[in-house]
Design brief:
By secondary structure, this protein is an alpha/beta fold. The chain contains eleven helices and 30 strands. The chain starts with 29 loop residues before the first strand and ends with a helix.
Length: 599
């Protein structure tokens, strides 16, 4: 968890009473004054400390000291001392109706803040004041912070914390624990806890597990469409859901599994014809597809964090690419988003490509990992894209990148710091989703726990990727004509199964419906990775098959992207830095030629 601190306001100096501008006395006027903030900054008003008619308009101004930034006015005390938040505007105007003492609150200039309200619960923290918790994060690391993971800081008896909302009544944007907060970091991000009341314990039967030291849900007898499993019963935690506990239930539409759970057994929630949404935490030890077998309506999956991410390097985690897409939506220019695997991450210089294009775009290199499904990354890209944007698919030669729907555990590793993405896609479209999540949970057990600050320090905009997703580290050519990683690629017609063709065409139709243009190119590939008997004619058959069956324009030639082995770095797909400029320049030419056909 990020380091949570209270903002230290240094020496408070009360302004002396001044009669200038004050028109009333304590007997018949309303008191107003500013309590200044010492070395952190200065605050002033044209209406000096004194007494005024009710209804008087007051203007106040705050000026932070060097290295500091203003974040809020409060009344009745500083926010540190439990004051009430009044305004985030440093130049604040209000109508005086009651005695008002305003306090300016400042923060470090390279940080920003999230303000959490327990919203009916309590905050179990020595750093909480007045039922609120301030969470500071470094702007040197974050484009957007993460909501606090559920580590027991917020508690409410009989309720489960399922998220935080930007409005106290829940009408704003909701973020589950640990999700990326795509909110404006120039101001305080203010969040209210979202609680789900747990279902009555009498709706369940429980069995005790001495091995786990907790209770297991054996059966559910209630009739409510929304179920929230209790986190404890008879003084011990609820740690599991047994096989057949909900199986065959046709009335339950959503289930919240508490963070105390260690397992959701196979068959526990199978054949639930109305189940459409589940919420669970990454504190599980076991979960599998077999738990939800036959749940054809189950599309919405909310994965909540109980710990900060474990995977902390650029290669394993790509939530930074999601952040970049959100960041550039505020730019007036349309986006040109490039999706692909790690070959795309290595091969494309986004700034160089942007400078060479004949159309004005902000170019984003959103290449991640070849095991991430194109369909899934296309869905989260659509979450931020709009009419007039452009998507370029650079295919790697795997089922994941070419229409497959079978998940890999690397997908969870890639977006461990941004579980949001899994709530944006219909889970019923994919195979082995929960199996792969369990594999991911197993893999990270051997890794040390980190804070969010540790995690995002390695993914900062000044780190391995710049602010348009271009790889900033230099990778060197291996120089070996015999370089070969052991992959065996053989191109021919009918390379894709019919269902893969159908899935890709459905992706393209979705883009078209949004008014997003799109095209396809080929990834760089080491010549030595091809089978020795591969012929040029068979490669042309492969290209012809794609052109005839996919509803997308292919702007490149496959053989132009077969490279000499000496220019690769550590993999048959990873071009070294010197070859990046050549690849990007040719890609720009191909895109410009395509744009001419549209004009």
């Amino acid at each position: 968890m990020k380091k949570t601190i209270l903002i230290l306001l240094l020496v408070l100096t009360a302004l002396t009473l001044c009669a200038c501008g004050a028109t009333r006395t304590p007997a018949d006027g309303v008191a107003f004054g500013i309590v200044n903030a010492g070395r952190d900054g200065n605050a002033y008003s044209s209406s000096t400390h004194g007494y005024y008619d009710a209804g008087t308009e007051i203007e106040v101004h705050a000026q932070p000291a060097d290295g500091k930034a203003f974040y809020a006015w409060s009344s009745g005390g500083t926010l540190e001392d439990g004051g009430i938040l009044v305004s985030y505007d440093p130049d604040y105007t209000f109508i005086l109706t009651q005695e008002t003492w305003l306090y300016p609150n400042f923060r470090d200039g390279d940080s920003a803040l999230v303000l959490y309200h327990a919203n009916g619960g309590e905050i179990v923290s020595d750093e909480a004041e007045g039922g609120d918790l301030w969470n500071e994060f470094s702007l040197a690391y974050y484009l957007y912070p993460n909501a606090l993971a559920d580590t027991g800081v917020f508690l409410r008896d009989g309720y489960t914390l399922v998220g935080y909302n930007t409005e106290p009544d829940g009408s704003g944007e909701t973020y589950a624990p640990g999700w990326k907060l795509f909110e404006d970091t120039d101001a305080v991000i203010e969040l209210w806890c979202v609680w789900r009341e747990q279902s009555p314990a009498d709706d369940f039967s429980f069995g005790y597990s001495a091995i786990y030291g907790g209770w297991i849900v054996d059966a559910y007898y209630g009739s409510d469409p929304e179920v929230s499993i209790p986190g404890a019963w008879n003084g011990d935690p609820v740690i599991g859901v047994a096989a057949d506990a909900f199986a065959g239930n046709g009335s339950v539409e959503s289930i919240v599994f508490p963070s105390t759970l260690k397992f959701i057994a196979d068959g526990s929630c199978s054949d639930m014809t109305s189940l459409r949404e589940v919420t669970f935490f990454d504190s599980l030890d076991y979960i599998a597809d077999a738990a939800f077998q036959g749940d054809t309506a189950l599309d919405t999956v909310n994965i909540c964090a109980a710990t900060a991410p474990h995977y902390s390097n650029w290669f394993n985690n790509h939530s930074k690419k999601v952040e970049l897409m959100r960041y550039w939506t505020d730019d007036e220019r349309p986006m040109l988003v490039i999706l692909g695997g790690s070959s795309t991450a290595y091969a494309v210089d986004a700034q160089q490509l942007q400078s060479l294009l004949g159309r004005e775009y902000v170019v984003l290199n959103c290449g991640t990992n070849g095991a991430n499904l194109f369909n899934m990354t296309c869905r989260w890209a659509e979450h931020f894209m709009d009419e007039g944007d452009f998507l370029l698919q650079i295919i790697e030669y795997s089922a994941w990148q070419m229409g497959g729907i079978q998940c890999a555990w690397e997908t969870f590793r890639s977006f461990e710091g941004c579980y949001n993405v899994f709530s944006w896609v219909p889970m019923s479209d994919y195979l082995y989703f929960y199996d792969c999540f369990k594999e991911f949970l197993d893999a990270r057990k051997a890794l040390p726990e980190l804070t969010y600050e540790d995690h995002y320090a390695s993914l900062a905009p000044t780190g391995y990727y710049d602010d348009q997703g271009t790889l900033t580290i230099t990778t060197y050519p291996n120089g070996s004509p015999d370089f070969w990683q052991g992959r065996s690629i053989y191109f021919c017609d009918y390379w894709l199964y019919d269902y893969m063709v159908d899935n890709l065409n459905a992706d393209y139709a979705s883009l078209a419906d949004m008014g997003i243009d799109y095209a396809m190119s080929y990834t760089p590939l080491n010549r030595n990775s091809l089978y020795p008997e591969q012929t040029d004619g068979e490669m042309e058959d492969f290209e012809r098959y794609l052109a005839e069956n996919l509803d997308i324009t292919i702007i490149s030639d496959l053989q132009d992207n077969i490279y000499d082995p000496t220019v690769f770095y550590d993999d048959d797909y990873h071009l070294a830095s010197p070859a990046r400029a050549e690849y990007t320049e040719r890609l720009a030419g191909e895109l410009n030629a395509y744009f001419e056909t549209l004009d």
